[in-house]
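Feature request disguised as a bug report, sorry. It would help if multi-protein outputs had a clear separator. Right now it looks like this:
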Amino acid sequence: MDDDHVRRHYEPRIGPDRPSHEIADWADVASQEARFGVLADGVDLARRSLLDVGCGTGDLVAYLMGRGVAVDYLGVDLIEKMIVEARRRHPAAAFECVDPFQPGALAGRQFDVVFASGVFNLDAGDNREDLPRRVGRLLELSREALVFNLLHARETDRYEYCFYWDPTDVRAILDRFDCNWRIIDDYLPNDFTVIGRKP
């Protein structure tokens, strides 16, 4: 996926008075929190380190704090303006402007859990071919678990700029990795979450 493609989509959405779910291009707060809930319930985060890839304005850390989850959080996003806004909204949390998919990014660092919400949503023209590379990279950054979500192919009201996945196709891609995979497909009609636990 081309970084400029991501920047062109999200940078114009960023503003201090705009709700975070709109900046992240989610339909509403409820759907955003439904996604966060799958993460919080799907893996043990207590006293773990968590890398939030594509953190946007940092809503995940606020959600976890609201649930009383004590986690060592780092949010990363490739858009500098997004990180500035995340720091403004959540000054106690740690954020870095970095693209973890670039060579050398986060060199030598690993996290217990890696989460990526919405990072595979934009249609870049090579999503199907690029997913294995990106999943492999996120697994390199993770000690214990990787959790990410995808837009579901059963959605009929589609955005032309988004990419929609069939869970069966995703499972076939994931089977090449030495990981225990679970797909959660019952929380939103247009979304599903993949949880991968390292053996």
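(second protein starts here, but nothing in the output says so)
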Amino acid sequence: MQRLPEGLWPVMITSFKSNNQLDLDGMKKITDMYLAAGANGMFANCLSSEMFQLNTEERLTLVKTVVDHCKGKVPVVATGSFHRNPTENVEFIKKIYDLGVEAVILISSVLVEPEEPEEKLKQRIDAILEAAPNIPLGLYECPMPYKRVVSPTLMKWLAGTGRFWYHKDTTCDALAIKSKLAQIADSDFHLYNADTPSALQSLRFGAKGISPISGNFYPELYGHYLKLYRENKTEELEALNGYLVVMDRITHDFYPRSAKLFLQKRGLGIDAATRTPSGKMSVKDKNIHQGLFKMFEMVREKFSIDSVIE
């Protein structure tokens, strides 16, 4: 087993045709966009991918398309747990892994009911470890069907199994993340922060990368952000971080359709169709998102960042 690379891991959106069927050509365009932005890995079949709105065959088709198109350029991870019962999950976990992903991701809030204790979550994960040996895994604190943040104690146990490589953290609290990181230091279990406002602090505390949804609007800004971090260009990094934190407050509204509309406006040839209900934008909302687009253009020019969309 080997560690997953540090850096930018986009939570991939899914391209649909206007009839809401999978658009595999659009998925290739999206994948190429992330690669051009300097992505170090891909998280396919996640919440941003509208995974709960896909059927089993669509999930497999989506993941296979991404893995095949990446052609080993970067590793791919993908969600494999959609049931409470570990036995029901194992068959699908094996199918996902057989597509060529580096690790199969478990959803903390899918494996247990909200009122069930963390010990029950540990037991169900342990059952999966036993029934699906030798398959590298990850954990995702997905906000749906409810948000289940795991404890530093469980993080230590997961790292100790030697089977967990990827953790998508949605704690949104840099100090809480620091406590988790202390429990997995020097292990192959890497934490990737989903939250832009706490991203820089978490990197400085030892997080191995980021997986922000705003990366689906302007991934090249995050690619440049991590480049500045690696090169210790502190002043420029903190200036860019300030812009990204402010911009991030807008990207969550009407998501993921808002991301697709943004990419459309940027010239990426995909439809804005989604299966996730997102509501209708008012004139005010459209003006806010137009302002986000103008701010993106200004930031890209200010920091001399090349566009990843021709």
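Even a blank line would do. Unrelated, but nice: DSSP finds twelve helices and eight strands in the chain.
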